[in-house]
Protein backbone atom coordinates (compact mmCIF):
# COMPACT_ATOMS: atom_id res chain seq x y z
CA UNK A 1 0.00 0.00 0.00
CA UNK A 2 1.35 3.43 -0.96
CA UNK A 3 1.83 5.94 1.85
CA UNK A 4 -0.38 9.03 1.65
CA UNK A 5 1.33 12.19 0.42
CA UNK A 6 1.35 15.33 2.57
CA UNK A 7 -2.12 16.87 2.84
CA UNK A 8 -3.00 20.50 2.17
CA UNK A 9 -6.39 22.09 2.77
CA UNK A 10 -7.57 25.11 0.78
CA UNK A 11 -10.32 27.30 2.22
CA UNK A 12 -11.48 29.45 -0.66
CA UNK A 13 -14.10 30.27 -3.27
CA UNK A 14 -14.93 28.24 -6.35
CA UNK A 15 -14.08 29.59 -9.83
CA UNK A 16 -16.42 28.06 -12.38
CA UNK A 17 -13.95 28.94 -15.15
CA UNK A 18 -11.26 26.81 -13.50
CA UNK A 19 -8.47 29.40 -13.51
CA UNK A 20 -8.42 30.62 -9.92
CA UNK A 21 -9.86 29.79 -6.51
CA UNK A 22 -10.39 26.22 -5.34
CA UNK A 23 -9.79 24.85 -8.83
CA UNK A 24 -6.39 26.54 -9.20
CA UNK A 25 -5.43 25.49 -5.68
CA UNK A 26 -6.16 21.80 -6.25
CA UNK A 27 -4.39 21.77 -9.64
CA UNK A 28 -1.32 23.35 -8.05
CA UNK A 29 -1.31 20.86 -5.21
CA UNK A 30 -1.55 17.93 -7.60
CA UNK A 31 1.31 19.31 -9.71
CA UNK A 32 3.50 19.68 -6.62
CA UNK A 33 2.92 16.23 -5.20
CA UNK A 34 0.58 16.82 -2.27
CA UNK A 35 -3.00 15.70 -1.63
CA UNK A 36 -5.29 18.69 -1.97
CA UNK A 37 -8.55 19.01 0.00
CA UNK A 38 -11.07 21.83 -0.02
CA UNK A 39 -13.44 23.92 2.05
CA UNK A 40 -15.61 25.97 -0.31
CA UNK A 41 -16.51 29.39 1.10
CA UNK A 42 -18.36 30.82 -1.90
CA UNK A 43 -19.57 29.82 -5.34
CA UNK A 44 -18.87 32.23 -8.18
CA UNK A 45 -20.11 32.48 -11.73
CA UNK A 46 -16.84 33.40 -13.35
CA UNK A 47 -15.10 33.23 -16.70
CA UNK A 48 -12.25 34.88 -18.59
CA UNK A 49 -14.16 38.18 -18.70
CA UNK A 50 -14.89 38.58 -15.01
CA UNK A 51 -17.12 37.56 -12.11
CA UNK A 52 -20.80 37.59 -13.02
CA UNK A 53 -22.08 36.51 -9.60
CA UNK A 54 -20.98 35.28 -6.18
CA UNK A 55 -22.88 33.41 -3.48
CA UNK A 56 -21.36 33.08 -0.04
CA UNK A 57 -21.83 29.83 1.87
CA UNK A 58 -23.19 29.89 5.43
CA UNK A 59 -20.60 29.93 8.19
CA UNK A 60 -21.91 26.63 9.53
CA UNK A 61 -21.32 24.96 6.15
CA UNK A 62 -17.75 26.27 6.03
CA UNK A 63 -17.06 25.17 9.60
CA UNK A 64 -18.53 21.71 8.97
CA UNK A 65 -16.39 21.17 5.87
CA UNK A 66 -13.26 22.20 7.76
CA UNK A 67 -13.91 20.01 10.79
CA UNK A 68 -14.86 17.05 8.58
CA UNK A 69 -11.48 17.12 6.85
CA UNK A 70 -9.17 18.13 9.69
CA UNK A 71 -10.67 15.87 12.36
CA UNK A 72 -10.49 12.73 10.22
CA UNK A 73 -7.80 13.16 7.57
CA UNK A 74 -5.56 15.80 9.14
CA UNK A 75 -3.51 18.46 7.40
CA UNK A 76 0.13 19.47 7.04
CA UNK A 77 -0.72 22.97 5.76
CA UNK A 78 -3.75 25.21 5.24
CA UNK A 79 -4.23 27.91 2.60
CA UNK A 80 -6.99 30.53 2.67
CA UNK A 81 -8.33 32.54 -0.26
CA UNK A 82 -11.67 34.24 -0.86
CA UNK A 83 -13.46 34.91 2.45
CA UNK A 84 -16.15 37.34 1.43
CA UNK A 85 -17.60 38.53 4.77
CA UNK A 86 -16.43 39.46 8.25
CA UNK A 87 -18.32 36.47 9.64
CA UNK A 88 -16.47 34.05 7.38
CA UNK A 89 -13.12 35.70 8.07
CA UNK A 90 -13.65 35.42 11.83
CA UNK A 91 -14.80 31.80 11.63
CA UNK A 92 -11.90 30.67 9.42
CA UNK A 93 -9.37 32.60 11.49
CA UNK A 94 -10.54 30.72 14.55
CA UNK A 95 -10.34 27.39 12.77
CA UNK A 96 -6.80 27.83 11.47
CA UNK A 97 -5.58 29.30 14.77
CA UNK A 98 -6.72 26.05 16.40
CA UNK A 99 -5.01 23.81 13.82
CA UNK A 100 -1.43 22.66 14.36
CA UNK A 101 -0.24 23.33 10.80
CA UNK A 102 1.27 26.28 8.96
CA UNK A 103 -1.28 28.62 7.38
CA UNK A 104 -0.78 30.61 4.17
CA UNK A 105 -3.21 33.53 4.04
CA UNK A 106 -3.90 35.08 0.65
CA UNK A 107 -6.03 38.13 1.63
CA UNK A 108 -8.02 38.13 -1.61
CA UNK A 109 -9.80 41.44 -2.09
CA UNK A 110 -10.31 41.95 -5.81
CA UNK A 111 -10.30 39.57 -8.78
CA UNK A 112 -7.91 39.88 -11.72
CA UNK A 113 -10.75 41.69 -13.53
CA UNK A 114 -11.36 44.24 -10.75
CA UNK A 115 -14.38 42.53 -9.19
CA UNK A 116 -14.65 42.92 -5.41
CA UNK A 117 -14.35 39.60 -3.56
CA UNK A 118 -14.12 40.93 0.01
CA UNK A 119 -16.61 43.24 1.65
CA UNK A 120 -15.12 46.47 2.99
CA UNK A 121 -16.67 45.61 6.35
CA UNK A 122 -14.49 42.48 6.50
CA UNK A 123 -11.18 44.34 6.36
CA UNK A 124 -10.99 44.86 10.12
CA UNK A 125 -11.56 41.14 10.69
CA UNK A 126 -8.74 40.33 8.27
CA UNK A 127 -6.42 42.68 10.16
CA UNK A 128 -7.33 41.64 13.69
CA UNK A 129 -8.32 37.97 13.32
CA UNK A 130 -6.92 36.41 10.15
CA UNK A 131 -3.46 37.95 9.75
CA UNK A 132 -2.41 37.10 13.34
CA UNK A 133 -3.15 33.43 12.56
CA UNK A 134 -1.00 33.40 9.41
CA UNK A 135 2.36 31.74 9.05
CA UNK A 136 2.76 33.59 5.75
CA UNK A 137 0.51 36.36 4.38
CA UNK A 138 0.74 36.97 0.63
CA UNK A 139 -0.91 40.29 -0.29
CA UNK A 140 -0.41 41.93 -3.65
CA UNK A 141 0.11 45.69 -3.77
CA UNK A 142 -3.60 46.51 -3.99
CA UNK A 143 -4.42 44.22 -1.08
CA UNK A 144 -1.57 45.63 1.02
CA UNK A 145 -2.84 49.16 0.33
CA UNK A 146 -6.41 48.24 1.36
CA UNK A 147 -5.16 46.66 4.57
CA UNK A 148 -2.55 49.21 5.60
CA UNK A 149 -2.99 52.40 3.58
CA UNK A 150 0.57 52.07 2.25
CA UNK A 151 0.55 52.49 -1.54
CA UNK A 152 3.66 51.12 -3.21
CA UNK A 153 4.75 52.86 -6.39
CA UNK A 154 8.32 51.58 -6.54
CA UNK A 155 10.41 48.63 -5.44
CA UNK A 156 12.01 50.76 -2.71
CA UNK A 157 8.65 51.02 -0.92
CA UNK A 158 8.11 47.28 -0.58
CA UNK A 159 9.76 47.11 2.90
CA UNK A 160 7.40 49.83 4.17
CA UNK A 161 4.36 47.86 3.03
CA UNK A 162 5.77 44.67 4.48
CA UNK A 163 6.35 46.27 7.86
CA UNK A 164 2.80 47.63 7.88
CA UNK A 165 1.35 44.17 7.24
CA UNK A 166 3.67 42.50 9.77
CA UNK A 167 2.34 44.91 12.40
CA UNK A 168 -0.93 42.95 12.30
CA UNK A 169 0.79 39.78 13.45
CA UNK A 170 1.63 37.28 10.69
CA UNK A 171 4.95 35.49 11.20
CA UNK A 172 6.05 36.27 7.64
CA UNK A 173 4.73 38.47 4.86
CA UNK A 174 5.34 38.16 1.13
CA UNK A 175 4.57 41.45 -0.61
CA UNK A 176 3.99 40.65 -4.27
CA UNK A 177 5.33 43.39 -6.51
CA UNK A 178 3.99 41.99 -9.75
CA UNK A 179 2.05 45.16 -10.53
CA UNK A 180 5.24 47.25 -10.65
CA UNK A 181 7.16 47.89 -13.86
CA UNK A 182 10.26 45.88 -14.71
CA UNK A 183 11.10 42.46 -13.31
CA UNK A 184 8.54 40.66 -11.13
CA UNK A 185 9.97 41.46 -7.69
CA UNK A 186 8.56 40.15 -4.40
CA UNK A 187 9.77 40.76 -0.85
CA UNK A 188 9.56 38.08 1.85
CA UNK A 189 10.34 39.15 5.41
CA UNK A 190 9.65 38.31 9.04
CA UNK A 191 10.84 41.72 10.19
CA UNK A 192 14.39 40.46 10.69
CA UNK A 193 15.33 38.59 7.53
CA UNK A 194 14.67 39.97 4.05
CA UNK A 195 14.50 37.76 0.98
CA UNK A 196 14.13 39.49 -2.39
CA UNK A 197 12.76 37.26 -5.13
CA UNK A 198 13.14 38.30 -8.75
CA UNK A 199 11.94 36.76 -11.98
CA UNK A 200 11.82 38.05 -15.53
CA UNK A 201 8.46 39.47 -16.52
CA UNK A 202 6.85 37.36 -19.23
CA UNK A 203 4.99 39.12 -22.01
CA UNK A 204 1.81 37.13 -21.40
CA UNK A 205 -1.48 38.67 -20.30
CA UNK A 206 -2.98 35.29 -19.40
CA UNK A 207 -2.31 35.46 -15.67
CA UNK A 208 -5.68 34.60 -14.11
CA UNK A 209 -5.16 32.70 -10.85
CA UNK A 210 -1.59 33.84 -10.17
CA UNK A 211 -2.16 34.75 -6.53
CA UNK A 212 -4.11 31.60 -5.68
CA UNK A 213 -1.49 29.48 -7.41
CA UNK A 214 1.44 31.08 -5.58
CA UNK A 215 -0.17 30.76 -2.14
CA UNK A 216 -1.09 27.12 -2.81
CA UNK A 217 2.42 26.35 -4.00
CA UNK A 218 3.84 27.83 -0.79
CA UNK A 219 1.43 25.71 1.27
CA UNK A 220 2.40 22.59 -0.69
CA UNK A 221 6.09 23.20 0.00
CA UNK A 222 5.46 23.90 3.70
CA UNK A 223 3.52 20.64 3.94
CA UNK A 224 6.63 18.87 2.63
CA UNK A 225 8.70 20.32 5.44
CA UNK A 226 10.39 23.25 3.71
CA UNK A 227 11.26 26.38 5.66
CA UNK A 228 9.26 29.49 4.78
CA UNK A 229 12.07 31.05 2.68
CA UNK A 230 12.62 27.74 0.86
CA UNK A 231 8.90 27.25 0.28
CA UNK A 232 8.41 30.75 -1.08
CA UNK A 233 11.45 30.56 -3.39
CA UNK A 234 10.26 27.21 -4.79
CA UNK A 235 6.73 28.54 -5.22
CA UNK A 236 8.00 31.63 -7.03
CA UNK A 237 9.84 29.38 -9.50
CA UNK A 238 6.72 27.28 -10.05
CA UNK A 239 4.37 30.22 -10.59
CA UNK A 240 6.85 31.94 -12.92
CA UNK A 241 6.77 28.84 -15.11
CA UNK A 242 2.97 28.73 -14.90
CA UNK A 243 2.73 32.37 -16.04
CA UNK A 244 5.11 31.75 -18.92
CA UNK A 245 2.91 28.87 -20.06
CA UNK A 246 -0.41 30.71 -19.55
CA UNK A 247 -2.86 30.29 -22.40
CA UNK A 248 -5.83 32.03 -23.99
CA UNK A 249 -9.24 30.81 -22.86
CA UNK A 250 -12.50 32.54 -23.72
CA UNK A 251 -12.57 36.17 -24.75
CA UNK A 252 -10.67 37.73 -21.85
CA UNK A 253 -7.76 36.93 -19.53
CA UNK A 254 -6.78 33.28 -19.68
CA UNK A 255 -5.32 31.23 -16.81
CA UNK A 256 -1.78 30.36 -15.87
CA UNK A 257 -0.87 26.76 -16.73
CA UNK A 258 -0.83 24.77 -13.50
CA UNK A 259 0.29 21.61 -15.28
CA UNK A 260 3.45 22.96 -16.88
CA UNK A 261 5.64 21.34 -14.26
CA UNK A 262 4.23 17.91 -15.08
CA UNK A 263 5.43 18.20 -18.68
CA UNK A 264 8.87 19.77 -18.20
CA UNK A 265 11.91 18.94 -16.05
CA UNK A 266 11.11 20.48 -12.69
CA UNK A 267 11.77 19.28 -9.14
CA UNK A 268 8.30 18.85 -7.65
CA UNK A 269 9.74 17.30 -4.50
From TrEMBL:
Q: Which Pfam families match?
A: Phos_pyr_kin
InterPro entries assigned to the protein according to its UniProt record, in alphabetical order: HMP/HMP-P_kinase_dom (IPR004399), PM/HMP-P_kinase-1 (IPR013749), Ribokinase-like (IPR029056)
Q: Where in the numbering of this chain does the Pyridoxamine kinase/Phosphomethylpyrimidine kinase domain appear?
A: 15-257
What domain of life does the UniProt record list for this protein's source?
Answer: Bacteria
Under catalytic activity, the entry for this protein gives: 4-amino-5-hydroxymethyl-2-methylpyrimidine + ATP = 4-amino-2-methyl-5-(phosphooxymethyl)pyrimidine + ADP + H(+); 4-amino-2-methyl-5-(phosphooxymethyl)pyrimidine + ATP = 4-amino-2-methyl-5-(diphosphooxymethyl)pyrimidine + ADP
The EC number(s) given in the record are 2.7.1.49, 2.7.4.7
Keywords (A to Z) from UniProt = Kinase, Thiamine biosynthesis, Transferase
> What is an example of a GO molecular function annotated in this UniProt entry?
phosphomethylpyrimidine kinase activity
Has the keyword rRNA-binding been applied to this entry? no
User: Function of this protein?
Assistant: Catalyzes the phosphorylation of hydroxymethylpyrimidine phosphate (HMP-P) to HMP-PP, and of HMP to HMP-P.
User: Can you say what this protein is called?
Assistant: Bifunctional hydroxymethylpyrimidine kinase/phosphomethylpyrimidine kinase
